[in-house]
Amino acid sequence: VIDCTMSINKYCNAELFERLPNLRLIKLVDVYDIKGNFKASFDELRYISWHDCPWTHLPYGVHLQKLVVLDMPFSRFETLWKIAKV
Hints:
Strand order of the largest sheet: 1-3-5-6
Oligomer: single chain
Number of helices: 0
């Protein structure tokens, strides 16, 4: 759980997730955005909770094969994944 409720900086760095290779649950509380590039592998991730997510799609290269719950109310999603043009 990343809770920025009491923080002045409401941003999270994507590099944080690289140090958590077996992450199964992500809950972001009062986080405005995640800065940086996702190089982390989310092979074990099963649950994402992020209310008011500012993204319109998930970052390219984020693989969520085992994802079961995507709890993102009030997000700005238009589509889950943006298809890469070949």
